[in-house]
Amino acid sequence: MVLQALAAAAGVAIENARLFERSRMRERWLEATAEINSELLGGATGQDALQLIALRTVELSAAHSSLIVLGGEGKLFVTAGAGPQVEEIVGSDLSRPDSPIEEVLRTGVPKVIETLGTGFGGGTVEFGPGIAVPMRAGAVVTGVLIALRRKGEPPFVADQVPVLASFADQAALALQLAEKQRSLRLLDVLEDRDRIARDLHDHVIQRLFVTGMNLQGSLRRITDKELHGRVTTAVEQLDQTVREIRTSIFDLQSAGDDRVSLRRRMLDVIAELTERTELSPAVRMSGTVDNSVPDDLAEHVEAVVRETVSNVVRHARAKSLTVTIEAGDELIISVVDDGVGVPEDIARSGLLNLEHRAQRFGGSLSVTSGKGEGTRVTWRVPLA
Q1: Burial of 207 (0-12, 13-18, 19+ CB in 10 A)
Q2: Which parts of the chain fold into alpha helices (H)?
Q3: pLDDT score of 381
Q4: How high is the pLDDT of residue 17?
Q5: What is the pLDDT of residues 175-219, one digit of tens each?
């Protein structure tokens, strides 16, 4: 009787220990889910979150490696992973009709895999047993989370499926909510930009325009030549300011596009090249630069701006730089500096390159320069 009582007590203790271990494991999975939510709410990118999901999967499932596979455009791509030699698989396409991963994504049913073998994802690593669970956000399966072990290691057991599947679902839901929050924040930013653009157009530009018109109307009454010249200069500066504000309005309204505009790219190039110099470049754009310039020409335009501005920074010893870009019947890029001019003995391979780019599109290049008088480079091509 005593032995039976001891055996019963031992059995109860073992069962309690198992229950405690399961409870502790569920707690650790919940902590991992909370960590992922916290990272996403803190501003982490989706890719960073996926990497964290893969890492925690390895740690908590006693796996050798883990992969996250996302579907899109009829294909399956390994988007993130953790574990030795996984980097050679990340980015691989796993789209195969007989793939167990494809089956999990299609059916939404978890799958314990006996062995994955060699060549999985095009890599050279030989994997053993695995477990694949769907990443489900609501009723939609967006991807598959895979835990992997080495060849010869013990297989995953069915008891591990529910916890891992729940973790995958919670992670997918967190990613979806984070993406919605990011979209809402972007929408708020775009609304602010649109409001600022409207205010600039409806109030600032109109006032400047009226002021310029009043000054122009007063010119005929001014007999003093010096004063007449000053007012004329002020009118021209107001016109230029209006053009620059219109360019800023266009940038504000197009800043939310996924495709980076040509205007933005050229502004970024100029800012990058002059960032560590004493130059404060003036950039003026007019016309439909983004809409009129085809993609094949846009690449050359960006290269022309980079080459000409780079030449000024490296050789001109200039104090001022003005870049003007006009899009009408022609695209005209004009780069003017007040530097030392183009020396006679300098290699002109860069200018020849600019000329060849222009000739390729039926255009031309002109360079005017005088010693101590600065340089004007004008690159133009027709816009059909």
Answers
A1: exposed
A2: 2-41, 46-61, 100-107, 160-199, 206-219, 225-254, 262-274, 289-292, 295-311, 349-360
A3: 95
A4: 47
A5: 777 777 767 776 777 677 777 777 777 778 778 878 888 888 888
Lowest mean pLDDT among 13-27, 58-72, 342-356, 363-377: 13-27
- Given a cut of 70, whether residue 259 has pLDDT beyond it is no
CATH number assigned to the domain comprising residue 348: 3.30.565.10
The pTM for the full model equals 0.47
111-113 and 75-82: which strand pairing?
unpaired
Provide the domain limits for residue 147. Answer: 2-183
Worst-scoring range by mean pLDDT, 84-88, 106-110, 140-144? 84-88
Residue 222 to residue 244: CA distance in whole angstroms:
28
Element (H, E) at 79: strand 75-82
Angle at which helices 2-41 and 160-199 cross, to 10°: 20
Query: Has residue 253 got a pLDDT over 70?
Result: no
- CA 247 – CA 249 distance, rounded (Å): 5
CATH number at residue 8: 3.30.450.40
Whether the Cβ atoms of residue 88 and residue 125 lie closer than 8 Å to each other = yes
Instruction: Using alpha carbons, list the distances in angstroms from residue 104 to 90, 107, 108, 139, 142.
Output: 19, 5, 5, 14, 11
Residues 163 and 266 in one domain: no
Confidence grade of residue 159 (pLDDT, cut at 50, 70, 90): confident
Q: In this structure, which amino acid lies at residue 23?
A: S
Residue ending a domain, choose from 183, 201, 235: 183
Establish if 249 belongs to a structural domain.
no
Q: Are residues 368 and 273 in the same domain?
A: yes
Q: Structure tokens of 159?
A: 């008891």
Angle between helices 225-254 and 206-219 (to 10 degrees): 160
Distance from C-alpha of 148 to C-alpha of 155, rounded to nearest angstrom: 9
Residue 372 or residue 137, greater confidence: 137
Whether 24 and 171 map to the same domain: the answer is: yes
Q: Tell which residue, 224, 289, 283, has the closest CA to residue 250.
A: 289
160 with 26, same domain: the answer is yes
Number of separate domains in the chain: 2
- Domain boundary at 151, 183, 215, which? 183
